[in-house]
């Protein structure tokens, strides 16, 4: 728990700083707070801020950079000969880390002394045995270079943490002193503190940007890594999806087309369910329903939107699937082989999207000015004629936007397809057959046994990239349409 | 209070188109229109004037049952058009509204082309047998709306692209296209500039040759310019009804006089 | 037909027609109107029908998870019997024999007669002899006095008692024979087999794949709880700070636009992509422990932030500018105006939005799959508070998925039961949000 302790120490320094800064400022004004430029608490806050913020920033940066640095140094030290056929540096490094973690655990459990864990002459067989006994390692045997690297890794980590603790505490104390020196009556403490708070606010707002950057970077780097191992053209145009299960074989077929087909097919079925029902529900609620009916039916429908997707997944797997199977299965029409199918997932996903489509459409229909309706009624149009020929055409761009947003939801939905759509990648037109989607395969490729450095696992990042680009495109386009539409009536 | 025998004196030879007796309108618990009796003549422009909230628009919307579209609104009493009760159970408001057209305060062209705006009414009422017929109806309506020359080259441009005054004339043309017998106008010029207002007023004057026109207006000058008969509403009552000239020069009720001279309203 | 005079003829009478007679065309139009309205009503009813089907299947399939079937038997083992059993070669078998003898005695006392053998007992109760032996070896002082044993029945028998397993659909197997059900019926009538509330399901931890009866959701509730603490502690301050900046301080410039665009896009990024982010950044890059609620909480925080920011901004916006002007007018700085006046007034709205965001995060599953909270057997509670964040654990939705993905259908009942618990939590959170909104809602 050294991190937690470090954190608490810095906080303590800041707290002390607050008290000292406040009293020092008061003292400089001769105890009369009216002679101060700002309220006394601002002087204290100023000191606390200077003691804590830079120190925490340093801690954060250090924590991010240290593993990177250690990784580079260690992997540079691993001789090429240690990398066996079929493996790569990434695989070896993860083995190094596992060994290091195993040693850590053994030391922590008291089964090995620190000196022994560091000893260069340690017997490989003995260490492997002891690691395996403690259930710490999965590889067959720890080799000499890996053990050496693991030992270096541990030493560097320990030194790094020690250095960081020192640096953070020193920085915190320096901040404290700096803040205290400033605590004079004439010092504009409030302005400084407010500038600091403002900076914190900006930092918080920037997290949205950082998250996007994080998503893009984690997708891009791993996708590039994947395309280094597997040709991009085979990925984008391959008609077959058949990853090898060994996790290291080169015989995998990783074509994205069958997955995209499954994704779109299921999404289309979902939209065929959700759009008519959602749209008609929205029309009824906004144009026909009495206030009481609306007050009951609208929240009830919206309950469907608040239900977690895992529930829908289970509903697809255990209720809708068997139900469809009893009608379309071998005992019924004979079109369906198993409960998991495009239809199953599509229908359930459609149910999930009904409130999404209906509440968006409801908003959009309500945004059509009443004057339009009056104009139409004034000409002797019935309600349905008004809706079909005036309200809906006026709301059309917005509704198209809403449908696109729903489509983007459907494409990105995971749990329903993982549980309800099946696992086989297929290019088929039969909606009663099992198919699989991009999201389902991301899950299966990253939760399987494949090593993270193998193409079978890395393909998930390329799939994620594909998914991200498609949904982002749909969203941006849909939001653009909706915004254009709103402007029209504002 | 409006004195029925008195107005009889000013009735010209035109037929009575709309006859209202003891009309009451309630919005929820609010009693918005109280005991209104009025006879509106054919081929005449009748103006409803009065301060804001006096109920003149509400009463106008009773004549083609537009108030039906408001849930909390309730109408009692008797309104007849050509001797037929429009609140009779047998009446379909949809059919009634084809006969009693309406133009609204703010120009509200549909987000469609100019042509489709006009053709909408005839289409839903089945007035045209084919395309050529429809074209003819549209042209006739646009000519009656005094806007044909301005839009004949861009019939398929969106109606929302026109200027405010053009839009309002388009809406009048749209109302005319369904061949109504009565035309209700709810402050048709309140959103228009003076030039556009003048054009619309000129149009109203022409329309009275074929229709019974009822216009609600805020502007007493406008009422004086375009109408032959004027009704003054105050706090839900019809205070005075008579020849426009008489109302403005020699009102009988003190409230009418106060309003006209600018002391109330 | 298209003759102009014909049209004129057709149009003219309609003009003078009485409004008291409804013409054919209007009738047709009214019929179309009624049809259209019926479609709308049908759509609503279909939507509500789905909701009802969903609710019914959750309740019907999930409720049995809350009951367990037990066999209660008062049993005396004498000192001699104990010595004798310990002296034999197959010790547990000897205990089983004693148990069967005791059961027969009990049945004779109750005056019922039924034939059964050792295998039937094993199918119904599992290895009963082993349990007995374990008990008496630990409590030798209990020898010779009556001890009442409560033992869980097998999941198949449990299913029979709950109606999940029926005689019609039963095929004899080494798990359950049709004749066993006769015995179960007799034992139930004799009050030896009873059903009771399954506390273990609520408080217990997950069991292995071979023991559906012993699986409980308690440990993953704790996992979810720690995750929600992380989400709350991070997303509330960050979300509020970001919203305050964007709503109150941000100048109109490119940087602000960039933030706005990012927030609205992040709100629509599929949750699985956040899982990928968590895997790549928190686990691969920062080497945080896999399956830890800390990592789950971080990922869910990033996912929930846009929701919280959007709702917080809405409640900040609803505070009228006159409040800000009043504070600035008495000489407060802009920062003081916001923190002393605007923020407290917007707080109920912010809390409501946060609770709804938390509820969303609580039910989210997909990102948790990728950071390793699935497939993992959460066998126990974490040690202490810090361990709650860093030790591998599961979370409610992840646990439900794990059960749903297991081959043994007996786990499905647990998954549905887990859903009931999950939905109860969500319901509670939403009700709190509604109460907050009702109680503190201000209309300006």
UniProtKB/TrEMBL annotation, chain A:
Belongs to the binding-protein-dependent transport system permease family. CysTW subfamily. Keywords: Cell inner membrane, Cell membrane, Membrane, Phosphate transport, Transmembrane, Transmembrane helix, Transport. It comes from Pseudoponticoccus marisrubri. It is a multi-pass membrane protein. One of its GO terms (biological process) is phosphate ion transport. This is Phosphate transport system permease protein. Its main location: membrane. Pfam families: BPD_transp_1, DUF3708. The chain crosses the membrane at residues 45-65, 162-180, 200-220, 264-285, 305-328, 334-357, 390-411, 457-482. Residues 260-478 form the ABC transmembrane type-1 domain. CDD domains: TM_PBP2. It is found in: Cell inner membrane; Cell membrane. GO terms for cellular component: plasma membrane. GO terms for molecular function: phosphate transmembrane transporter activity. InterPro entries: MetI-like (IPR000515), MetI-like_sf (IPR035906), Phosphate_PstC (IPR011864), PstC_N (IPR022182). Part of the binding-protein-dependent transport system for phosphate; probably responsible for the translocation of the substrate across the membrane.
Automatic annotation (TrEMBL), chain B:
SUPFAM superfamilies: P-loop containing nucleoside triphosphate hydrolases. GO terms for biological process: phosphate ion transmembrane transport. It is found in: Cell inner membrane. GO terms for molecular function: ATP binding; ATP hydrolysis activity; phosphate transmembrane transporter activity. Its main location: membrane. Gene3D superfamilies: P-loop containing nucleotide triphosphate hydrolases. SMART domains: AAA (SM00382). GO terms for cellular component: plasma membrane. It holds the Pfam family ABC_tran. It is a peripheral membrane protein. PROSITE patterns: ABC_TRANSPORTER_1 (PS00211), ABC_TRANSPORTER_2 (PS50893). Keywords: ATP-binding, Cell membrane, Membrane, Nucleotide-binding, Phosphate transport, Translocase, Transport. Residues 18-260 form the ABC transporter domain. InterPro entries: AAA+_ATPase, ABC_transporter-like_ATP-bd, ABC_transporter-like_CS, P-loop_NTPase, PstB-like. Part of the ABC transporter complex PstSACB involved in phosphate import. Responsible for energy coupling to the transport system. This is Phosphate ABC transporter ATP-binding protein. It comes from Pseudoponticoccus marisrubri.
TrEMBL record, chain C:
GO terms for cellular component: plasma membrane. It is a multi-pass membrane protein. Residues 221-433 form the ABC transmembrane type-1 domain. Keywords: Cell membrane, Membrane, Transmembrane, Transmembrane helix, Transport. Coiled coil: none annotated. It holds the Pfam family DUF3333. It is found in: Cell inner membrane; Cell membrane. The chain crosses the membrane at residues 38-59, 225-246, 266-288, 294-316, 337-359, 415-436. Residues 1-23 are annotated as: Disordered. One of its GO terms (biological process) is phosphate ion transmembrane transport. GO terms for molecular function: phosphate transmembrane transporter activity. The keyword Transport applies. The keyword Manganese does not apply. NCBIfam families: 3a0107s02c (TIGR00974). Belongs to the binding-protein-dependent transport system permease family. CysTW subfamily. This is Phosphate transport system permease protein PstA. It comes from Pseudoponticoccus marisrubri.
């Amino acid at each position: 728990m050294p991190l937690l302790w470090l954190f608490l120490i810095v906080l303590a320094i800041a707290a002390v700083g607050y008290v000292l800064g406040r009293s020092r400022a008061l003292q400089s004004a001769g105890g009369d707070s009216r002679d101060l430029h700002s309220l006394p608490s601002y002087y204290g806050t100023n000191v606390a801020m200077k003691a804590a913020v830079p120190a925490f920033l340093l801690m954060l940066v250090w924590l991010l950079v240290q593993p990177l640095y250690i990784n580079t140094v260690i992997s540079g030290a691993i001789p090429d000969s240690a990398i066996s056929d079929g493996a790569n540096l990434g695989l070896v490094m993860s083995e190094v880390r596992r060994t290091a973690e195993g040693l850590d655990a053994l030391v922590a459990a008291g089964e090995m002394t620190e000196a022994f864990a560091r000893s260069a002459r340690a017997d490989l067989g003995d260490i492997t045995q002891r690691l395996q006994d403690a259930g710490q390692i999965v590889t067959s045997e720890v080799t000499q270079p890996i053990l050496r690297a693991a030992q270096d890794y541990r030493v560097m980590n320990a030194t790094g943490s020690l250095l960081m603790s020192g640096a953070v505490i020193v920085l915190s104390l320096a901040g404290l002193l700096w803040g205290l020196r400033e605590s004079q009556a004439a010092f504009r403490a409030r302005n400084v503190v407010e500038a600091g708070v403002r900076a914190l606010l900006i930092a918080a707002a920037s997290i949205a940007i950082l998250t996007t950057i994080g998503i893009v970077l984690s997708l891009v780097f791993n996708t590039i890594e994947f395309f280094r191992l597997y040709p991009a053209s085979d990925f984008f145009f391959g008609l077959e999806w058949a990853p090898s299960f060994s996790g290291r074989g080169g015989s995998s077929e990783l074509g994205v087309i069958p997955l995209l087909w499954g994704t779109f097919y299921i999404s289309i079925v979902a939209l065929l369910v959700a759009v008519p029902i959602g749209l008609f529900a929205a029309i009824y609620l906004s144009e026909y329903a009495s206030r009481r009916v609306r007050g009951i039916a609208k929240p009830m429908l919206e309950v469907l939107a608040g239900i977690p997707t895992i529930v829908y997944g289970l509903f697809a797997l255990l209720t809708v699937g068997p139900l469809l199977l009893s009608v379309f299965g071998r005992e019924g029409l004979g079109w369906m082989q198993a409960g998991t199918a495009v239809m199953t997932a599509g229908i359930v996903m459609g149910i999930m999207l009904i409130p999404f489509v209906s509440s968006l459409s409801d908003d959009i229909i309500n945004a059509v000015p009443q004057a339009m309706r009056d104009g139409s009624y004034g000409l002797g149009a019935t309600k349905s004629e008004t809706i079909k020929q005036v309200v809906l055409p006026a709301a059309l761009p917005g509704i198209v936007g809403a449908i696109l947003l729903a489509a983007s939801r459907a494409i990105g939905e995971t749990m329903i397809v993982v549980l309800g759509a099946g696992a086989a990648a297929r290019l088929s037109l039969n909606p009663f057959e099992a198919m699989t989607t991009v999201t389902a395969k991301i899950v299966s490729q990253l939760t399987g046994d494949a090593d993270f450095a193998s193409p079978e696992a890395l393909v998930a990042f390329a799939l994620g990239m594909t998914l991200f680009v498609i949904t982002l495109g749909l969203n941006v386009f849909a939001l653009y349409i909706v915004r254009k539409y709103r402007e029209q009536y504002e | 209070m409006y004195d029925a025998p008195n107005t009889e004196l000013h009735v010209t030879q035109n037929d009575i188109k709309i006859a209202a007796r003891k009309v009451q309108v309630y919005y929820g618990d609010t009693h918005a229109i109280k005991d209104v009796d009025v006879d509106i003549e054919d081929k005449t422009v009748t103006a409803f004037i009065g301060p804001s909230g006096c109920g003149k628009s509400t009463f106008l919307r009773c004549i083609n049952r537009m108030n039906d579209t408001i849930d909390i609104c309730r109408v009692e009493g008797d309104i007849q058009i050509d001797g037929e009760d429009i609140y009779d159970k047998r009446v379909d408001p949809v059919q009634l509204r084809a006969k009693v057209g309406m133009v609204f305060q703010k120009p509200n062209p549909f987000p469609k082309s100019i042509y489709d705006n006009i053709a909408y009414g005839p289409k839903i009422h089945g007035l045209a047998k084919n395309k050529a017929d429809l074209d003819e109806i549209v042209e006739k309506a646009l000519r009656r709306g005094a806007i044909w020359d301005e839009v004949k080259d861009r019939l398929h441009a969106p109606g929302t692209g026109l200027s405010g005054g053009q839009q309002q004339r388009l809406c009048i043309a749209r109302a005319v296209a369904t061949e109504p017998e009565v035309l209700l106008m709810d402050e048709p010029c309140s959103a228009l500039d003076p030039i556009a207002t003048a054009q619309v007023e000129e149009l109203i004057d022409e329309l009275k040759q074929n229709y019974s026109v009822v216009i609600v207006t805020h502007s007493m000058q406008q009422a004086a310019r375009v109408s032959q008969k004027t009704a003054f509403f105050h706090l839900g009552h019809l205070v005075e009804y008579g020849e426009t000239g008489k109302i403005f020069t020699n009102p009988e009720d003190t409230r009418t006089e106060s309003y006209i001279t600018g002391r109330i309203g | 037909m298209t003759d102009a005079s014909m049209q004129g003829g057709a149009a003219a009478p309609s003009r003078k027609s009485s409004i008291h007679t409804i013409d054919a065309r209007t009738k047709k139009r009214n019929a179309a109107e009624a049809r259209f309205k019926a479609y709308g009503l049908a759509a609503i009813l279909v939507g509500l029908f789905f909701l009802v089907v969903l609710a019914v299947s959750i309740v019907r399939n999930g409720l049995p998870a809350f009951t367990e079937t037990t066999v209660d038997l008062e049993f005396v083992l004498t000192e001699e019997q104990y010595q004798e059993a310990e002296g034999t070669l197959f010790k547990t078998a000897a205990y089983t024999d004693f148990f069967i003898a005791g059961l027969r005695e009990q049945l004779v006392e109750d005056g019922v007669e039924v034939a059964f053998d050792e295998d039937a007992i094993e199918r119904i109760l599992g290895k009963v002899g082993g349990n007995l032996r374990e008990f008496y070896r630990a409590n030798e002082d209990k020898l010779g006095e009556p001890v009442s044993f409560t033992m869980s029945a097998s999941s198949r028998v449990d299913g029979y008692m709950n109606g999940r397993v029926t005689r019609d659909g039963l095929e004899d197997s080494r798990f359950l024979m049709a004749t066993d059900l006769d015995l179960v019926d007799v034992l139930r009538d004799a009050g030896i087999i009873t059903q009771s509330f399954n506390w273990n399901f609520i408080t217990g931890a997950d069991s292995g794949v071979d023991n559906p009866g012993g699986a409980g959701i308690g440990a993953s509730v704790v996992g979810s709880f720690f995750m929600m603490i992380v989400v709350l502690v991070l997303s509330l301050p960050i979300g509020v700070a970001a919203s305050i900046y964007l709503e109150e301080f941000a100048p109109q410039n490119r940087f602000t636009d960039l933030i706005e665009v990012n927030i609205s896009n992040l709100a629509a990024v599929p949750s699985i992509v956040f899982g990928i982010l968590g895997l790549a950044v928190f686990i691969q890059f920062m080497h945080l422990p896999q399956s830890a609620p800390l990592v789950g909480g971080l990922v869910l925080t990033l996912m929930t932030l846009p929701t919280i920011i959007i709702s917080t901004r809405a409640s900040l916006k609803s505070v009228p500018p006159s409040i800000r002007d009043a504070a600035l007018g008495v000489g407060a700085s802009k920062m003081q105006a916001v923190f002393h006046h605007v923020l407290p007034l917007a707080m109920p709205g912010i809390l409501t939005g946060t609770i709804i965001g938390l509820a969303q995060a609580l039910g989210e599953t997909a990102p948790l799959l990728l950071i390793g909270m699935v497939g993992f057997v959460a066998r126990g509670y974490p040690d202490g508070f810090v361990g709650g964040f860093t030790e591998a654990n599961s979370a409610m939705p992840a646990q439900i998925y794990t059960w749903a993905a297991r081959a043994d259908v007996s786990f499905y009942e647990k998954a549905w039961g887990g859903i009931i618990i999950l939905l109860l939590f969500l319901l509670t959170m939403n009700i709190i949000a509604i109460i907050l909104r009702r109680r503190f809602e201000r209309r300006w």
